[in-house]
Amino acid sequence: MPLPVTRSGNPSLNERVFASQPRMGFGAERMTLQGSINKAFLLLVVLLAGAFWPWSQYLTTGDASVVQGSLLVGGLGGFVLALIISFKANLAPYLAVPYAALEGLALGAISALFERRYPGIAIQAVGVTFAVFAVMLLAYRLNIIRATQQFRAIVIGATMGVALLYLVSMLLSLFHVDGVTSMLNSSSPLGIGISVIIAGIAAFNLILDFDFIESGASQGAPRYMEWYGAFSLMVTLVWLYMEILRLLAKTRRND
Length: 255
Hints:
The protein has 255 residues and is mostly helical. It has one domain (29-253). It has nine helices and no strands. The protein has helices at 15-19, 33-61, 64-87, 92-117, 121-141, 149-174, 179-185, 189-218, 225-253. Helix 3 (64-87) runs antiparallel to helix 4 and helix 8 (189-218) packs antiparallel against helix 9 (225-253).
């Protein structure tokens, strides 16, 4: 079976998704980029609400079981729903909100761990993530950064490289070979530089996401696909937030 053609480093955004959807005629309700962005902000509100419980519980009580339970339920549940939505885009209007809530549980637990060690880091990471999103959206809207074929190839290739790097790190750590993991987590100039590059790749993926969603809209994709576009933006934003959180933690270690 041939691999689905993709125009984004985000695996949930590929040509198969929009090609399999019905086409809406002139005057019918079609998806729009702005509609997907609006729904993405709604999902972010749900994510923040989901993050509040493990965040508040762990920072108040220090109970590690709260973090473990939230990571297990949120991480596993969010992964399962993400897989279902990726293969059944028409279910996005029903599953995107539960996905955001589960991701919130996992991110709230992770953020609380970082916050306990580096006070104030979580709100900084949230602020930087929103700022990067706004800058990338503005750059896309004003055609300052365009999703050309060359740009797309570079970003997708870099994203696959990052995914391979993380996979190799995870596999080697299972055999207690921590060289790659130590490099990724190092607060040395090299480690910080790697985090800056990876965060930059995540940010540039937003440009590809915007372009792909707008492409779907121009093809006449139905309005419910705005939820799928919002879900896809969430996937990229969660990755971006985690990379920014790691980067800020590395800089704090050097203070």
